[in-house]
Amino acid sequence: MNILIVGSGGREHALAWKCAQSPRVDKIYCAPGNAGIAKIAELAAIGPDRFEDLADFAKSHDIGLTIVGMDDPLVGGIVDVFEERGLRVFGPRKSAAILEGSKAFSKALMKKYQIPTAAFETFTDLEEAKSWLRSRASFPVVLKASGLALGKGVLICEDLESALRGADEIMGEKKFGQAGDEMVIEEFLTGREVSVLTFVDGTHIREMSSAQDYKRAGDGDTGLNTGGMGNISPNPYYTEEVQRICREKIFQPTVDAMKAEGREFKGVIFFGLMLTEDGPKVLEYNCRFGDPEAQVVLPRMENDLIDVLEACIDGTLDQVDLRFRPDSCVCVVLASDGYPVSYEKGKVIRGLEAFDKETDRMCFHAGTAFRDGEIVTNGGRVLGITALGKNLEDARAKAYEAAGWADFEGKYFRRDIAL
Length: 419
Ligand code: AMP
Ligand code: GLY
Known about the structure:
29% of the residues lie in helices and 29% in strands. The protein has 419 residues and is α+β, with helices and mostly antiparallel strands. It folds into 4 domains: 2-93, 3-Layer(aba) Sandwich (Rossmann fold), CATH 3.40.50.20; 119-187, Dna Ligase, domain 1 (2-Layer Sandwich); 192-319, D-amino Acid Aminotransferase, Chain A, domain 1 (2-Layer Sandwich), CATH 3.30.470; 328-412, Phosphoribosylglycinamide synthetase, C-terminal domain (Glycinamide Ribonucleotide Synthetase, Chain A, domain 4, Alpha-Beta Complex).
């Protein structure tokens, strides 16, 4: 069958790369894609917010399955539009994607169904939020814009003054746009963070191997939060005991809760977890593969991706035996100097051909484009240098060696991924 992938980042490159390994796939299209994805897929210049145009494209190109990588179109209801047009599509409907699209919703869901998460309050009025902060908060405190904010709408505030300032930014100045119409104020948790991506078919849930994100821009977890500067899989802190507790208290209960609310979830639920002294707690839900979690999890997956995605759509995930290679995988993101604040684009990227003959080292493109026959930088996160190895140390050494192969002006990356 022909496949259409919606998105343009490293995650979508990893999805396209995995689809290309399926004997069931004839041709892959990606909208809008990037210069790396163009090597394995035909690009269509259609933005991810143009649902009807994307559906027209799927109809005219005989697409058997559309895979939506990004959160924005999912939360905006792209799956509903495709389904109404009789097209097969992987991802949650709008009514279920709210699990990521509204933190106010997901926190209320967890409270109602007793799924462990940080204690919280939700506000739609700035003055009420401030008066709660003055009289009730203990510090540090966490402020979250309820809506989508490119992973940047979370502020950890050490004292009352910075919390009041943060509330002004989110709800008053609308620094994160409409995402700040509603705000969640949350108890600060400490512990190790784990990402667990799962496949869900409405009723059943199957976990992929665990991962660990490196969210801060600088070494030693310093600097601003980013979309993710690197990732490793498996996550060494995700023990069998932790997994057992997550299965019992978090994973299946979330799927059941969504079903009970009439919001049957089909697609990927990405659980962002904190392993606290009181056990694992949910930091956030995402309704899609992580970026760069996909880059370290998909290379370890042994199943044909298309089979698994179709089982999610058809409600037959209970018949799927999901398998992962015992290897470890490490992804180091090469970013543009200045990311996540401001950075230049259009810098020529050299050295990419070094990856052509590699089998266990991949260069997933995140922000790249073509210009005059050359490949140039086109985003904050540019490349995800990814390596499989027999353990984390081995994968780390291979990834960092390859991080030196590709070069562009202003390249920066963290040196402590998987350390
Ligand atoms: P989120 O987008 O909700 O996952 O938040 C982004 C990051 O902020 C998380 O990966 C954590 O590092 C941090 N964070 C979020 N919520 C909390 C919390 N309640 N306590 C401590 N850190 C948090
Ligand atoms: N890497 C975190 C995310 O995709 O949300």
